[in-house]
Design brief:
single chain, flat
């Protein structure tokens, strides 16, 4: 036979407080994890930006050429291929708009954040030492500023998930 024990209001309050503290800690850990993923994904998108942009630019040409090829196989359909390409196009449009907005914000506040990302990730890529020499500052300063710029861009791309909430 099961025995039922009633808890006092005081015991219920203690239990409720423990639950709230545990849930708050779990929520904070989840936000930290999302912020870490946002930063990682932003760096990855920046590193691959030129290649993905080139991929997007070739999609129209490839669509016409691929219509009567092996993509008509029942497992390798043009539809499946185009879904993947459409996702790439959609993401790259978002990233490009985010970069354009970040460049505008940097110009507005006279920050070199966008220029640092541009030198590190686009076109003829420079390493941190080369960028530091270009600006006449220490490499660690450039490293920190690139990290800050990547965090700012992450906030534009991912919104509240990229914020460091306390």
């Amino acid at each position: 036979m099961n025995q039922i024990t009633e808890l006092s209001d005081e015991q219920l309050d203690v239990l409720a407080n423990k639950i709230v503290v545990k849930l708050t800690k779990e929520q904070q850990e989840e936000f930290k994890k999302m912020r870490k993923y946002a930063f990682h994904n932003t760096r990855l998108l920046l590193r691959k930006y030129d290649v993905l942009k080139a991929h997007v630019e070739t999609i129209d040409d490839q669509l016409t050429a691929d219509q009567e090829t092996f993509w008509n196989h029942k497992y390798l359909t043009l539809s499946a291929l185009m879904q993947n390409r459409a996702k790439t196009v959609k993401i790259m449009r978002h990233v490009t708009r985010g970069l354009d907005e970040y460049e505008r914000l940097c110009k507005k506040k006279d920050s070199r954040g966008y220029k640092l990302l541009e030198k590190k990730y686009f076109g003829i890529k420079m390493n941190d030492e080369m960028i530091a020499e270009y600006y006449g500052v220490d490499r660690t300063t450039i490293n920190r500023q690139i990290k800050d710029a990547t965090n700012e861009l992450s906030e534009i791309l991912y919104g509240v998930e990229a914020l460091e909430l306390k």
